[in-house]
Write a structure and sequence with these properties.
The chain is about 40% helix and about 25% strand. The protein is built from ten helices and ten strands. Strands 1-2-3-6-7-8 form a six-stranded antiparallel beta sheet, with no helix packed on it. The protein has a four-stranded antiparallel beta sheet with strand order 5-4-10-9, with no helix packed on it. A hairpin with a 2-residue loop joins strand 4 and strand 5.
Length: about 325
Amino acid sequence: MVIITGVTYAQNITLPRASQKAVVTQRLGISDVTITYHSPSVRGRKVFGGITPYGNIWRAGANENTTINFTHDAMVEGEKIAAGTYGVYMIPGESEFKILFSKFNQSWGTVQPTEDDIVLKVAVKTEPIVFQEWLSYNFIERSSKSLTVALQWEKTSVPFKVEYDVTKLVIDNARAELKGPAGFGWRGYMQAAGYCLQNDINLEEAMVWIDKSIANTKGFSNLSIKAGLLTKKGETLAAEKIMEEAIPTGSPFQLNNYGYQLLGQGKTKKAIKIFALNVKRNQDHSFIWGFTDSLAEAHLKNGNKKMALKFYKLGKVKAPQNQQAYFEGVIDGINK
């Protein structure tokens, strides 16, 4: 007698879901905000105050709970929330929604969080929008330190603000990375110091970093950052001396950019000297017409139309065909 045994496994095939999955991510500084959700459609129904009643906890999407991930500690509507992934729920109201962040992020959406599950609750005002068939999450506003996330569906937008302490996160991350491979060369220290200079923060440590960069490999980039840090300290003579050392090492484009920095600072005569040196040094450069244009602009700003015309005309001779009209227009404008 032969006995046949078998095991039957219930196995589903993959089919499209009515409310399909979507993932949106936005970077802010070196941090990310990522929202994972399923997107239902209106299908002629009344959504808020209808199929999604006012005053009831709602999964803020369809199917599994909507989730949000913060790669670093953040602020939501001015309230602190730790880095991590959270289940997102909402309590709709006629003009205000409450947004709930649950410590559980793998729930089926209709399993409502308890008060003990909720790590943060904020209230936000809704905004009207043009009718939108499919629910979506969008990043509708961004600045250097904050962004606004908005759930948008039917004729309602539910915005909430997310902030990261970007400068602190960048500095802390720089300290960590400079203990690794980035700390074995000159570039990482220079980048960290340059970020501090640009944002006017952590200037004492920035000076230590830039000195390490220069000790490894000296060049225009790190010397000019050191000059900038010295200027921040009020040591202008020392800064000028550093720039005198940097100028001979500068590339044509670095010198051109430095000239424009001087123009922006109102140091027109110094800018003219830098632009003139750049033109003299780089007569055979493919962008010489651009360098002569910079020198002409500086002369014009200094009130010397004769010298400005001289270099605009030289620039026209050297310029490619697609720049001829520009030079002709500037020259005609000066001659009027």
